[in-house]
Amino acid sequence: MRSFLLPLLSAALALPPAGASWDVLRAGDPDQGAAKVQCTHADGQPWCQSVAVLDAPADRIEARLKDFAKYPDTFPRIERCTVLDPQTVWIVLDMPFPLAQRDYIARFTESREGADRVFQWTAAVHPDAPAGDAVRLLRTAGVWRLTPMGERTRVSYTWQGELGGDVPGWALPRAWTVQGEEVLRWLGAAVAAN
Fold first, then answer.
1. Contact between 34 and 27 (Cβ < 8 Å)
2. Is 78 inside a domain boundary?
3. Confidence (pLDDT) at 14
């Protein structure tokens, strides 16, 4: 089983290269808080990114992203977030009708790149993760990048866009656009309410 999962996990690590060509799904104005959402493919996998400038300092956004226990409050699409160890969580997503729930196990790491704060997650295997009835997203991966701008922060959210299950291809761009917009909107609202 372990040898079967390793190729899946390493595929999740293949972030789009710096020079990737992105298709813009929503041409928002990030500087005005309206998310720009775009997608590309890297190593045959869909990747999406949304970017917006939020009216909060990077320290507050960073603290919210590190607080896994509050993820269901921060991101209403998250039905449940169970902390399995300090860097690993099991997340259950409440998908819109008619889609079944999705879940994933992710390991988070953090780093600094210049002034940027970077939170990366990749698919993980953990002995305490419940099996559940949801469609498991085995290739989950992504990056939060926070670029401080004084009392504001440019937030870039990049994620592996595979939804699993039987989602028709024609529905994916709409799903990616909604996800990119709502995640940044919800994060901004949660930080503002804090």
1. no
2. yes
3. 66
Confirm whether 18 is domain-assigned.
no
Q: How many Å apart are CA 176 and CA 100, to the nearest integer?
A: 16
Q: How far is residue 92 from each of residues 3, 77, 106, 118, 136, measured CA to CA in Å? A: 25, 9, 11, 23, 9
Read off the pTM.
Answer: 0.88
Is omega for the bond preceding 86 within 30 degrees of 0, making it cis?
A: no
Average pLDDT estimate for 24-34? 84
H or E, element range at 123? strand 116-123
Q: Say if 45 falls within a structural domain.
A: yes
CA-CA distance, 57 to 38, in Å (whole number)? 24
The boundaries of the domain holding residue 77 are 23-193
CATH number of the structural domain spanning residue 174: 3.30.530.20
Asked if residue 95 is part of any domain, the answer here is yes
Q: Is residue 187 very low, low, confident or very high in pLDDT (cuts 50, 70, 90)?
A: very high
What is the domain count for the chain? 1
Reported as a single tens digit per residue, the pLDDT across 128-155 is 888 878 899 999 999 999 999 999 999 9
Q: What percent of the chain has pLDDT over 90?
A: 62
How many whole angstroms separate alpha carbon 31 and alpha carbon 29?
A: 6
> In which residue are the tokens 């899946």 written?
8
